[in-house]
Write a structure and sequence with these properties.
Layout (H helix, E strand, L loop, with lengths): L2 E2 L8 H10 L2 H8 L3 H8 L3 E2 L2 H11 L3 H4 L6 H5 L3
Antiparallel strand pairs: 1-2
Helix pairs in contact: 2-3
């Protein structure tokens, strides 16, 4: 399941940094089993991936989820209507 986030979601710079250390969007997307377009949308905060994809990213990048997706630490994120 893909969740679209609000346009005010900040760019996930930590995710982008981790991805750049592993390679291009094309390579990382292929390694993760997702499309390059989907990875780009996640990096830009357009979409929040499923828990399954998040866990795959956490393992792949070796970075805790709360660092890749800092909004997970914000209680107001869960109360949002969007």
């Amino acid at each position: 399941m893909v969740t679209q986030t609000s346009s005010s979601t900040p760019l996930r710079s930590r995710l982008r940094e981790a991805r750049k250390q592993k390679g291009t969007q094309r390579k990382v997307a292929a390694d993760l089993g997702i499309t390059e377009t989907y990875l780009r949308a996640i990096e830009h905060g357009t979409y929040l991936p499923s828990i399954r994809i998040m866990k795959r990213m956490e393992h792949y990048f070796g970075v805790p989820l709360d660092e890749l997706f800092p909004e997970l630490n914000d209680p107001s994120f869960y109360l949002s209507d969007s």
